[in-house]
Write a structure and sequence with these properties.
With about 400 residues, the protein is of the alpha+beta class. The chain is built from 15 helices and nine strands.
Length: about 400
């Protein structure tokens, strides 16, 4: 059975095309005839608003409904453009270039962190050039570089995390229709948002257990350190200073270091906070295993409106889809594969690279496009039955990448 995610949405944020599958009260307390319905008109929305404060939306039906694109409205910022860049290159052609971009930028982040740790500054021009490469790759095909965010290792978490937040932020900005210049500025913010951690003692940064009160205070100081580091970087994007200082602030004022509330936060701070949290939840750390994509967006959706900007959280979930590139999935016939691309008009039916047979042993690699209802050996259409951890059944995405499996599709 295909997994479905229900999103908690405040009634003021409802849009035509959403499919309401659950209310905040018993169905019998409302005039709705069916326990589940699509919002087809503004009157439908107004009726729901009369009876409920929030509802739950079936994401699988929502993302496939053409009218649901009405949700993608510009946030209150001049960075929106009416026509976001379109895909220019298919996954198979972009993955090799994306791999080079990812490796070069990852190495650059590591060198920046070493420089900061030894008291030196950041080369803003190098950072801008690296981010520009990431933006170009995501414009050509976001699937390729998004897959790279799944090449996770707990031993290099801090540098990989900065790289991943950069990629995820750019992908979300592209989905929202930001201009190329805005995407580059946003990516710059994401890439350098955590540089302040290099001023935190390593024994605290890499501690496998819970931090005590004093250690937590030192860890949280990384936002102040990051602000100061980026303030001294010549030629950088000024907004990155604010993001480094504010990416742990929360909409309800429960964040740090200044306990700011929603309207006090810049759009880029809100965007990077979402990307930062998502990657942290899904990554393996020295003290915990990472969660799956499904579990992560459920956690974030529950915090939408309180911890994170509710509208941007929905955009982020829609941007990544139900099965983002790099997801390890099990098919209904027991075979296991890796998602290598989303289908914009059928988000729950991505393209999958099959790696293991139904007995969980290696099979000859095969790409199946679930949107085309391609059949398995028994003649049944392939479909996803479950999302697995990134290391399920011994699958190692980093090793597969290094072996050139994705590049040689």
């Amino acid at each position: 059975m295909e997994e479905v995610i229900t999103l908690k949405v405040a009634v003021d944020d409802l849009k035509i095309g959403m499919y309401v599958c659950e209310l905040d009260r018993p169905w019998l307390d409302t005039p709705f005839l069916f326990q589940g319905f699509e919002l087809k008109t503004e009157d439908d929305i107004k009726t729901v608003q009369q009876y409920c404060q929030y509802v739950y939306v079936d994401s699988s039906k929502y993302v496939e409904n053409d009218s649901a694109t009405s949700l993608k409205q510009p946030i209150s910022s001049p960075i929106w453009t009416a026509n976001p860049p379109k895909l220019q290159r298919v996954f198979e052609r972009e993955i090799e270039a994306a791999g080079v971009t990812h490796k070069q930028t990852s190495n650059l982040v590591k060198s920046f962190m070493e420089e900061v740790r030894f008291g030196h500054g950041i080369d803003s021009e190098q950072a801008k050039e690296a981010v520009a490469e990431c933006v170009d790759s995501i414009i050509k095909n976001p699937n390729a570089l998004l897959l790279m965010t799944q090449l996770k290792s707990k031993d290099t978490y801090t540098s990989e995390h900065s790289m991943n937040v950069c990629i995820l932020s750019i992908a979300l900005g592209r989905f929202l229709g930001f201009s190329v210049e805005a995407l580059r500025n946003l990516g710059y913010c994401g890439l350098l948002h955590d540089m302040g951690k290099m001023k935190v003692p390593l024994e605290i940064l890499n501690k496998p257990g819970s931090l005590n009160e004093e250690e937590l205070k030192l860890m949280r100081a990384h936002t102040l350190y990051g602000r100061d580091i980026l303030m001294s970087a010549r030629g950088g994007f000024e907004g990155a200073v604010d993001v480094a200082y504010s990416h742990h602030e929360r909409i309800d004022g429960s964040g740090y270091p200044r306990a700011l509330i929603g309207e006090q936060l810049s759009p880029f701070s809100k965007l990077v906070a979402i990307a930062d949290t998502y990657d942290a939840i899904t990554s393996d750390r020295v003290y915990k295993k990472g969660e799956t994509h499904m579990q992560a967006i459920k956690i974030m959706n529950e915090g939408g409106g309180n911890l994170f900007d509710a509208e941007l959280t929905i955009h982020f979930i829609e941007c990544l889809g139900i099965y983002p590139p790099g997801s390890v999935v099990e098919m209904s016939n027991g075979e296991v594969g890796v998602v290598i691309g989303m289908n914009p008009k059928a988000r729950i039916r991505p393209r999958v690279l099959l790696l293991l047979d139904e007995n969980k042993t290696p099979r000859k690699e095969r790409i199946v496009d679930l949107s085309k209802l391609e059949p398995d050996a028994c003649g049944n259409p392939y479909r996803i039955s479950a999302m697995l951890r990134h290391d399920a059944y011994g699958i190692d995405l980093r090793r597969l990448h290094e072996q050139g499996i994705f590049q040689n599709l």
